[in-house]
């Protein structure tokens, strides 16, 4: 079954606005990661948050994790047209030798 | 920029042909992965490797095979390509399980 589910599926905003994407998952995790994918390219790692962390910042990115609700959010502040991409959450399940499980992604369009 | 390479970037091939998609990384990572991704959809893990001479099937059943004879090289082979194999194939590597993954640019395969 799908571990991560992003919400919304697509988001369209103007430059300068904030963008918030959510991710829900089903099983206990060691960490949760967010990736960005520009159209037709490979994924680029943005940020990793461990299960014992609640919030993490990196530049204009802010990630929160609520393990009791099994959910995470990615906030991009003061968005730019260059932030237009698909954003995926990925979970590292707490089950021994695990691989990452990716969600379906949120497609973000930032208009000038 | 991640040091992980995929060739070819684009491939259009007829049904029944044998193809090999190449993936190489120069980071010395033990863990390598192959994902299949249809446009606008989530990533599906089709193969992964713990290290040299170890390969495992992923969550999504695939008719492809992989080999890992050298740490830096993780090729994927389709013995007889079919139109249902048309997709984007992404290769990734990581230092360990649950760690951030570094992705190649992908190979977009079209089987006619």
Keywords:
heterodimer; A: 112 residues; mainly beta; 6-stranded mixed β-sheet; 5-stranded antiparallel β-sheet; 11 strands; globular; B: 112 residues; 4-stranded antiparallel β-sheet; 0% helix; 49% strand
Please characterize this protein's 3D structure.
- The complex is a heterodimer of chains A (112) and B (112).
- Chain A is mainly beta.
- Helix content of chain A is 0%, strand content 58%.
- The termini of chain B are far apart.
- Chain B has 112 residues and is mostly beta strands.
- Classes of the chains: A mainly beta (112), B mainly beta (112).
- At the A-B interface, strand 4, strand 5, strand 9 and strand 10 of A face strand 5, strand 9 and strand 10 of B.
Please give the oligomerization state of what you see. Answer: heterodimer
Total beta strand runs of chain B:
11
Percent in strands of chain A: over 45%
> Gap between N and C termini of chain B, in Å?
33 Å
Q: What best-fitting shape of chain A do the alpha-carbon axes yield?
A: globular
End-to-end span of chain A in angstroms? 38 Å
Uncertain segments of chain B are none
């Amino acid at each position: 079954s799908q571990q991560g589910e992003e919400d919304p599926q697509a988001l369209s905003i103007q430059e300068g606005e904030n963008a918030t994407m959510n991710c829900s998952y089903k099983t206990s995790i060691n960490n949760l990661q967010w990736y960005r994918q520009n159209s037709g390219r490979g994924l680029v790692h943005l940020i990793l948050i461990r299960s014992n962390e609640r919030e993490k910042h990196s530049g204009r990115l802010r990630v929160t994790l609520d393990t009791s609700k099994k959910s995470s959010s990615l906030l991009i502040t003061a968005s730019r047209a260059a932030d237009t991409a698909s954003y995926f959450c990925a979970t590292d399940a707490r089950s021994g030798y695990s691989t990452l499980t990716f969600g379906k992604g949120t497609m973000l369009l930032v208009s000038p | 920029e991640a040091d992980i390479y995929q060739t070819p970037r684009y491939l259009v091939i007829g049904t029944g042909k044998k193809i090999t998609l190449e993936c190489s990384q120069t980071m010395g990572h033990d863990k390598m992965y192959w994902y299949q991704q249809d446009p606008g959809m989530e990533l599906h893990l089709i193969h992964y490797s713990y290290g040299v001479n170890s390969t495992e099937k992923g969550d999504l059943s695939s008719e492809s095979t992989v080999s890992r004879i050298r740490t830096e090289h993780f090729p994927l082979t389709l013995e007889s390509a079919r139109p249902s194999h048309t997709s984007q194939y992404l290769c990734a590597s990581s230092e360990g399980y649950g760690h951030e993954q570094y992705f190649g640019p992908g190979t977009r395969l079209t089987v006619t």
